[in-house]
Amino acid sequence: MVRDLVIDPFGSSDQIIYIATDSGGLWKTQDGGATWVPKTDFLPSLNIGAIALDPGNPSIVYAGSGNAENQFASSGAGLYKSSDGGETWVVLGASIFTNCAINRLVLPAPNLLLVASSCGCFRSIDGGQNFGSNPPLYNDGLPIISGNITDLDVDTAIPTTVYVSIWGFGIFSSTDSGATFPAGANIFTPARGAPASVGYITFAQSKQPDRRTMYVVAQLLSGPANTGVFKSVNLGLSWTNVSVNTSDIEVSPVGYWGTVGVDPQDAKRLYVGARALYLVTDGGVSGITAASRIDLSKVHADQHALVFSPPSHVTGPAPTRFYTGTDGGLATTTNSGSSWTLLNGSSACFFGNGSLATILFRKIDIGRYSTANNLYTYGAAQDLGVSVHRPDCRGSPWLFGQGGDGNSVAVDPLDPRHAIVSTGDGTYSTTDGGASGTPSWQQSGKGLTSVNFLMFYDPKGQFVYAAGSDNILYQSADNGNSFTAIRTFSAQVYDLSIATIDSSTIWVGLGDGTVQRTANAKAGSNANWTSIAIAGGPRSPVTGIAVDPANTSQAVAVFRPSGSSTRVAFRTVDNGASWMDISSNLRGVPLNAVVIDPNTSPHAIIVATDTGVQRSMDFGATWQPLGFALPNVHCTSLAIDPSATPSLLRVGTYGRSVFELAYQRIYVDGNSTSATQDGTLENPFHTLLQGLNVPPSGAARFVNIQSGDYAVGPITLTQCATLNALNGVVRIH
Predict the structure, then answer these.
(1) CATH at residue 508
(2) DSSP characters for 364-426?
(3) Strand partners, 625
(4) SS3 for 252?
(5) Model pLDDT for residues 633-663, shown as the tens digit of each residue
(6) What is the span of the domain harbouring residue 98?
(7) Phi and psi (nearest 5°) for 190?
(8) Backbone phi, psi, residue 588, to 5°
(9) Which of 129, 303, 533, 601 has the greatest number of C-beta atoms within 10 Å?
(10) CA 302 to CA 369: how far, in whole Å?
(11) Are 12 and 54 within one domain?
């Protein structure tokens, strides 16, 4: 999801572009969108809501964290600043902007920064080092103007004039570069023709033939319509209503969608972004209807950002090239939407590295029990339905399968070409690996009474289970074609785990903090269930539960912190009769999923957190981050295939797509005539036929070898290791 974008005005074309993504961080392209690179993977929050470049030096990049519409991570962690085009960053204003959402950034002049946030509009005169409302220092940490600032921009002709829109109040103007916004400077009031009760407000201002035309898209809090479009031809002295067919244009009540733009070369060429994108070329005289839509079947729905090429890159008359950021990424048009170019990187299934990887996955699942099977990964994503990464997909792109809001997916353990997905539109299944089109995804799930179910496959492939918000667990014995209700619980099911060693045993985590267990699930509605309270556990949803693959009496349940409770992980070894708090150094850390790896001794417990993946090798006494190079992202689900050695682990994230734990091997080339190859990293999952064998099991560690030439023959290291040559060069042969 692209929330904002900015184009470097240097040069003659739109080559360098930065985009802000929802939980995916800031990305940069230097070739006009052909390839992209993430630039903020390890900053405190990847939830970026706004970007701006310093007008005196476009290598100075500002990124504002936080997004009020993100269901997982709305609060920000501060303002990020880079002085080298996004290569390195510092965090500014953390004490001010933590727990705020930064919605817009502008710089009326070099080093003069205005920040529009849910906590007010803040001003800095020193490039973000300090913020305040106390002239001349502006360092008291207070906002210039309070409220939820939904939009902010500099006048298109007079850079000392600034406009801000405040949720529920209107649009205020400043004539001193944002130093003051007088109470009487509200230009969007009922007295001037604006609606009496508004919520979210966004606006745009013309540049040619003059700066006097302004457009507003506003959320209406009273009356039959929820959206209004308004126009002023005198800089806000008076406003008129632009006719909108509200059955055609849908704006979220909380401003999830909503953007507006006016062509900088034509004040009558108005673009309105809601769920869809609309264009009128007469300044709104004829109104906005379904016929005004320009994105249908071309660009993804849900419009969040609309940005025109900078004047330094414009060589012809209107229409001016513009870019739209949506739930589906970034797209551009040079002809007002008659044709579009998608700018998400490679869309092919081959060699697509350099593509945007910002999908908001809610749940993933994989094929299991062989290398051929586990090359399949399916993911259910927010607003992108379900996608699949198959053996024929080399590189990062995925094949799009079924649209809608994906909620959950499960893969047949006997045949990874068969998967079942639950979306906001219903339940669908595929039998050919999820390729887009007919007959790939067909309606299934007869007997399910609603949508957005959690889906689970029996490890033996005999049954499919579905659990929804109706507190009912459903079972299917025909690969998900039809379901029968087998159990009604006291609360909603949040997770379910089926024992590998005995698929009759199921553990269920519920929304009231309890779990239930059965040892004869195959009996359907006749199964016997035991309700189990977790002593010491919070009375909040069990976000993840895992039964030990080799012992049905052992299980782990995890939570997100609730209220004053910081205990988030519990383990039982006696069918739930007693529980041990294994939170340890994870106390207070939100946990979202858990799996148990049977290929380690003792069995490792692996959890997905809001900032990565943690593992315990001692039954929860201690926890350590697992692997390296995983971005600081909200991890929503884990999928493990213990048939691989070591176990194959993939993590689904909300904002950075899917990652696989790569067990890298360190080796020394015994046939090399020089020492330059010593310590080379093996590519994951490729087998070396010679050199130092390093079985990838256990925790990563370092092996230090003094410099010298060692003719010792084959050497086996029993742990993953980094080879350090001490005091010179090491050669082993």
Answers:
(1) 2.130.10.10
(2) EEE--SSTTGGG-EEEEETTTEEEEE-TT-BSS--EEEE-S-EEEEEE-TT-TT-EEEEETTE
(3) 614
(4) coil
(5) 999 999 999 999 889 999 999 999 999 987 6
(6) 1-186
(7) -55, -35
(8) 85, -5
(9) 303
(10) 39
(11) yes
Q: What is the DSSP string of 583-647?
A: -GGGTT--EEEEEEETTSSSPEEEEEETTEEEEESSTTS--EE-SS---S--EEEEEEETTSSSP
- 240: its two tokens: 């008129």
Residue where a domain terminates, one of 326, 343, 360: 343
Handedness of CA 359, 361, 365, 370 (dihedral sign): positive
Which CATH number do you get for residue 425? 2.110.10
- Give residues with Cβ within 8 angstroms of 557, minimum separation 6: 509, 515, 534, 537, 542, 544, 545, 569, 570, 571, 579, 594
For residue 307, give the 3-state DSSP assignment: strand
Same domain, 63 and 171: yes
Q: Is 671 exposed, middle or buried (0-12, 13-18, 19+ CB in 10 A)?
A: exposed
Rounded (5°) CA angle 266-272-277: 115
Q: How many domains does the chain have?
A: 5
Residue 478, both tokens? 């025909």
Q: Residues 558-568, buried b or exposed e (16+ Cβ, 10 A)?
A: bbbbbeebebb
Domain-embedded: residue 191: no
Say if residue 201 is in the same domain as residue 159.
Answer: no
Same domain, 274 and 357: no
| Of residues 671, 672, 675, 666, the one with CA closest to residue 731 | 675
Among residues 301, 325, 343, the one where a domain terminates is 343
Report, in this order, helix, strand and coil percent for the chain, each rounded to 5.
5, 40, 55
Distance CA 651, CA 324 (A): 29
Same domain, 362 and 483: yes
Asked if residue 507 belongs to a domain, the reply is yes
End-to-end CA distance of the chain: 51
Q: 305 and 3 in contact (C-beta within 8 Å)?
A: yes
- Give dist(CA 660, CA 310) in Å, integer: 39
Coil, strand or helix at 681: strand
- Residue 717 CA, chain-centre distance (Å), reads 38
Which pLDDT score is estimated for 250? 65
Q: CB-based burial of residue 140 (10 Å sphere; 0-12 exposed, 13-18 middle, 19+ buried)?
A: exposed
- Give pLDDT < 70 ranges for the chain: 69-75, 224-225, 248, 250-255, 346-353, 394-396, 435-439, 663-733
Is 150 part of any domain? yes
Burial (Cβ within 10 Å: 0-12, 13-18, ≥19) of residue 451:
middle
Measured in degrees and rounded to the nearest 5, phi and psi for residue 512 equal: -100, 10
Q: Do you find a cis peptide bond into 602, omega within 30 degrees of 0? A: yes
Are the C-beta atoms of 175 and 119 separated by less than 8 Å? no
In this structure, are 227 and 334 located in the same domain? yes
Residue 519 lies inside a defined structural domain of this protein: yes
Q: DSSP labels for 458-521?
A: -TTSS-EEEE-TTSEEEEESSTTSB-EEEEE-SS-EEEEEE-SS-TT-EEEEETTS-EEEES-G
Phi first, then psi: what are they for 629, rounded to 5°? 75, 5
361 and 268 in one domain?
A: no
Element housing 94 (H / E): helix 94-97
